[in-house]
């Protein structure tokens, strides 16, 4: 545990309430169905720590439970809040971890160490105080004791990037957490919902950098944010019509700390969604990965590991030569447009008089995009080629 290395083992003294009749999913720790491979030597991949230019960080995935509630949040199963433990010598906690109880425990937070050896320009500093941001004392809910969420007060020029959670109303020790120098921080936004209740003016969310992608500098820390006043309304979108082609793909998000699979992105038309590792179905080790469906299983399986072609890897320089089609910037496939007048007349011939007017009015109310088809742009022209897939 010394020399700045993080433990890759996962242990968690959960000590959940014995009155719970049925074990919650979070009481089971998720583990990949096959051991991590032995990665070839590299400059920084899967070494356990990463140097971000004066601040060294490591990933902590072992926790000690601090407080849990057994209702509210996703599936109304509550949430549990943890403190990373143990933390390697020389590293410091940046914030606590929270997760809904409706999924196996599969989380992490970063711990950090200042490696500049510059007392006049420290990257990490203790908070100067704490503010009690929220407590569960007044809530009439199923919970294991009371929970208290504290917001560190950073020194001038520094920022707090996580909360401290306690089971006592006493302020935490100032040595418990570290704040980060402002020039080593980036703007964050809410990620997935962790916990809250309709009748309570409080929510907890995960955090992620606002600017994301392979060129972005922000690094997620695994911590959460507590908010009084409710969360923002989600943005919604829908797609209608069809097109003559598509670029579907999957993206694997792998931890740079230890090479462990964290999540998979399944694309669909212009969008898609990230699925965390515990939500995946694994077959025969790494053969066949898909979204788990407990009600049915199709025999149609595409094994992406059997046949693949490396078309781009900028970090390898000239080792990988991009094929010409990858840089084709126009839309793929023909553009087809329908003459709405011709289409209407063809159908009107089959309809009685009253229905003709209704049909005509309906057709003209449909967006014009529905009656046209265009090929999609190629994968390199998509935002997710160099940005984050949402």
UniProtKB/TrEMBL annotation:
Family matches, as InterPro entries: Vps62
> In its UniProt entry, what is this protein called?
Vacuolar protein sorting-associated protein 62
Query: Mind giving the lineage of the organism this protein is from?
Result: Eukaryota, Viridiplantae, Streptophyta, Embryophyta, Tracheophyta
Q: Which domain of life is it from?
A: Eukaryota
